[in-house]
Records
---
Amino acid sequence: MGDPTGSAAVTNGVPEQAPAVLDDVLFSRRRFLRWISGIGATISGVLVGIPVLRSFVSPALAKAQPATWIKVAEDIALLDIAVPIRLDFIQNQSDAWVESRTQNAVWLYTEDGAKFKAYNGHCTHLGCSYYYDKELKTFACPCHRGQFDIKTGAVLAGPPPRPLDELQVEIRDSAVFVNYRDFRLGVSEQVGV
Amino acid sequence: MRRWIDERIDIASIRETLVDRKVPGGLTWWHTLGSATLAVFTVQVVTGIVLGMYYAPSPDHAYDSIRYLEHNVMSGALLRGVHHWGASAMVVLVLAHMIRVFSMGAYKYPRELNWVLGVVLLFIVLGFSFTGYLLPWDQKAYWATQVGTNIAGTAPLIGGALVKLLRGGTQLGAATLTRFYALHVLLFPVLLGFFALLHLVQVIRQGIAPRTAVLDAEPPPRTDDPAYASYYHDRYARSKRAGVRFWPDIIAKDLVVATLVIVVLVLLAHFSGAGLEAPADPTDTTYVPLPEWYFLPFFQLLKLVPGSLESVVAVGVPAALVLVLLALPFFDRRSMRSLRHRPAAAITMGVTLAGVALLLGAAFRSEPPTAVATEVGRPLSSIERAGRAMYKARNCGACHALGDQKPDTSADTPNAPDLTEVGLRHSAAWMHSFMEDPARFHPNSKMPSVGPPKLTHEEIEEITRYLASLRGPNWATAKQEFYDTFPEPVKRTERP
């Protein structure tokens, strides 16, 4: 800001008579005032900027939700063998300040009724709910025709960037528990959200 | 590049009018109050925008959204604190600016209309404050607004319609909250921005009022004297020629004051946040409402007048204040500006300020010994609050003690456990199962089962959530240690 000749400039058509000595004094005084202004504006900006920016970007830096153990089936004996089973469950969910109950699903697969595979019910491509295609004996996603292997969750066809998200399974007193969590969609690496 | 832009928007002339213009010399530090107000308004806009991202204007969620901001958003409490103290700063700075303009006679010729704009701005600021106070939807917000809207309701003739207009219905509720929210974030910012812009444009076009001595050198006695205009413009032009440039002389001074104000705001916000009381409870009959501190003198005045005069004072005083302030530059046309030459103005101002100070002092002294703390522990979520309501509705407190609430000690009450810290001793899962069938846990338990059909599972879960939140007076630091004994296979649950 400002011209280097400082106070000797012509303002509003009225020439200012400024002796050289006075010019020096005025010049340093002005420089001081500019410094003060700059410091003041910076302090104000930073002080207000910190809470404003931090609270604005806060959601982007939020930690991933921990997985939760959820009972998805009461009795292991009632589950089908060698056919994937979709199990819906209701979950209490905190969505920012709103607590609600949402329905989610996992797919369970077992060949011997003892060892289980559990997959998150969302397609890893863009999060649609996939289904079991009885003819092809694969998981198929209706949105973009992704296909997954029922035994391993591997991608067989279509755009999904990674295999189905496998979840931990535990059998407690003949009930089936799944350690449920969601992951970022559309990317090849598995990152919790 | 610079030349290209310059040719099109003529930066040089903008700079000349805004930045390089000359300003009368010898302006005092008191002259920085207007720009400090503008700085705080900017802070309010910026913080308000981010606050708006975390706010839900509905009675179901308003309180929870503020609680979320305070506890789950980085710097959220600080952000809200700055906005809260900024509101007080706006009122203080606007009033101080007004007192400065009044005592230097700066509202006189040719700045009468800019004074009127200033009065309009003052009332927009008060409107901001009144509507913003309700938004957190806590006890303080709810009850202060209840009283504030009732005051408007005492107005003769239009009172009934006015209170319904303010509340968006007969009751203070959901429609009031959205109404206040819309005024606070949509209408008032636009109005304040528009009028503040006009106010500033006038300051730039007319130049800031000079020191009183410049215009008090044997002027024509009245400003409506035909000779006054040329006297004024001659004296003003001379003072301006001998003055300083707006940049950096004036701006530096303005920025020093604005920075000090902002530092104070952030310190206040850091050490004493906006605070959040218990959620609004329309059924609470013990709560003593208090308005924001700058409305206290008026509040106190209402306490002093006899009941029959209350509606006259409640509506008459603010109305008279508006009229007097608006009319001031039109009936005071004597040309002398320094308070030394205006004894009547000096006395009126002194008496008014002293009266306001006395009322404020009296209001602070008569303040009740802080509102009754009804809850021990952290603020509750909406499900926990529903549980608390269910706890009261099912009269659980007839047998169980909880905090200050002692059970009915008539002869046949069973000896039920104190629930003040039950959240430390039992997990939510255990409490839920126990309430469904207490006899399964303790064969001799006198606790009646509240399982279906008495209460639904969801209702039991609500009570459970409420009970799980009860962690005694040291809730913030107290450690949970569960003694959950389940019937059949005996298990110790480690975590809820």
---
Amino acid sequence: MGGPEVEIIPYGARAILLNWPQKIDENTLFQVLNAKKLLSDYYIKQKVYINSAYNSILINYISTINNIYDEILTISELILANNPSESNTFNSLEIPVCYEEKFGIDLQRISDRNNLSVKEIIQLHSSAYYRVYFIGFLPGFLYLGGLDKKLSCPRLETPRQSIPAGSVAIGGDQTGIYPKSSPGGWNIIGRSPVPLFDIKNNPPTVARAGDLIRFVPIDHHQFLDIDARIKAGEYKLQIKPGND
Amino acid sequence: MIEVLKPGILTSIQDKGRFDGLEFGIPVSGAMDQTSMQQANMILGNKAGDAVLEMALLGPKLRFTSPTLISVAGADMSPTVNGEVIEMLHPYPVISGDVLEFKSAAAGCRSYLAVKGGLTSEVILGSRSQYDGITEASCLSKGAIIPYQSLDYLSFPSGSRLKMDRENFTREVLEVFPGPEFNGLSDDQKDKLFRTSFTISHYNNRMAYQLNEELENILSPIITAPVMPGTVQLTPSGKLIILMRDAQTTGGYPRILQLDERAIDRLSQKYEGQFIRFKLY
């Protein structure tokens, strides 16, 4: 019995790439996050910075590497010698979303395309748990896995110039929340009053890779109430520690 | 302090870059031309990665409010202090009230101003580099104030001086390594990639440089994966995009090449319409 194969290769003169099989699934994610933890804990941290995505880790060296193959050997030893015995601890959190059509401007489009009522779309979207695979694209943009296939909907042919911060959207097989106002081509189905990224917070994002997220429907009145509490500094997101 | 009288086209505070924010999706940022930034710093005895001002195409007009030493490296923007020309790559003393002015860049397009001890603006996640949504401002605007430690007395380093490679900005060749998806290219594509003289398109900024000439793309998209400054992506329509210091942290286009660090610096000094050629290390 063996785990998935990992390929460790140079990426330019001062970076090393770790590739797991080209798949998006939770088992691959846990392999990636375990290896990332090992690297952060035991690999010389002051000389590297590490970034991960669905099935890969990029180790970037702040200064030049003396011998890239020596480093690859060290990393291979570290990854192969350690069993993921103590697993990472991930949080689980509930993010309030107002799906009213005032915010969910593309609900009708998805409803027409996918033969679902608006009510069914909201029900499907808010009943699933979504796994955070990594954060990329924009500061605080969560790559989420777990969208029900029935909700899959192609991106708009022409992206909108500006989508408000907090917009919850579906693009192809993915769902996500725009952390700040930006151009975008995803179908907007609602809006969350909770800021997903604030550099003044530590950490600046509400979730990290590995965490689980559920969207909780709220009405416009609750949206305004939470928004006011956030502005007054009196709102705290419900975050539950959960072992995976 | 430095008071910004005129901001120039795009002037920002930059340093070696921000490495602690990748897991939150925060770009590395930092000086586009790290070599020039390091030179400006080292002339003053600063640490190579201290915070400097990066100026693009047309420089700013600045007033100093306390004494310090300054130096300028990178593209020549004909700097003057109170109207008097100052030499690049030399320490130069300024006192309260002195006005430093830059014009447009002669060769290259990015110039770097270092101040003794480095600029001391806010540090966020290990860096002072300005970036939208991370630092209070994303670049300098008129009236902005930039802090530094003023000097009680001025002392000049008087040892050897570094010899600078003046041809660095004008060379067309960019040294590259094969990227993770390079091997998926056909021999024909590889041949074309290394034989074409590419021109830099209108779309060039701190985030990425796009090239005008296209390369037929037979590679399928990849599962979104990490990228870094210097990564050359090939889009489905065949466009080549070279990611620069403010690039996003992940991407889904095949990564066909990776620029050498010095090649990123050299490209940073190029602008629309100029030629580049890729050469494998």
---
Amino acid sequence: MANDPIQQFQIVEIFSFGEIGGMEFAMTNSSVFMIAAVAVISGFLMGATRGRTLVPTRAQSVAELLYSFIANTVRSTTGTEGMKFFPFIFTLFLFVLTCNLLGMFPYFFTVTSHLVVTFALAMAVMTMVLVVGFARHGVRFLELFVPHGVPKPILPFITLIEVISFLSRPISLSLRLFGNMLAGHIVLKVFAGFVVTMGAAGVVGAVGGVLPFAMTVILTAFEFLIAGLQAFVFTVLTCVYLNDALHPHH
Amino acid sequence: MEAEAAKLIGAGLACIGMGGAGIGVGIIFGNYLAGSLRNPSASQAQFTNALIGAALAEGLGIFSLVVALILLFVV
């Protein structure tokens, strides 16, 4: 089928760097859009803050808004201690947000609609949480899994549940972003496909095709909301997990 | 039953889980709205919590969607 809704997620090789140890290293459309996202972020932030003025210009106020928004989120979820990790979290937020938004352009590739990418990001977050937790609290970090004030008989079960819930965090963190982007883009293409099918069915169909077309417009607006929201949710959950590493005895 | 038919039925069954996620997200935002109408001054501070709850509930629905997609395209 030519208009397969899955086709948009195809990874296409642009040019190959050759094989290293049986694995092929190639420039794909995914890596091109990752580089584009980084270029957009750094280009925008550097351009917006070049001529800094006390009364900000429009671009500068957008950059300041983004900065203070994430800074407030980090401060309110992890406390002032967490501000040490602000650069990492701000980078993560901007990268996910830009990749989500770049994917909204027609014919553009959505980097975050691949589980490999989101799982790598989630594992980076969890690795940071583990390293920070053990570096700060040593073995006492494991008290995270043994909550206070739980009756002795059920403590082993609670600990088991806590361990399982901790281990499933990278999976749920990556699947949420991946699933939202994948499902949203599939739904958009399916509804766009309805317009074509209706249009091909003669005059009555063409008039009826207005309905799925209007739905596509509404869904596109909704998808922009999802793109921003999921980037924010990814960031907030990163902050929550980081808070566990900084203050494990809650 | 043929394996292909069972696969499609399984994908359809997996999608029932997304209805549960829809109910959950609805309850979270409904209660958030009810609470913030009673006490508008506290609504700003709790908006992040509402989003975290919605994201956690929605994540479970996404899991069932992923199960359905795996049944349709991978298995």
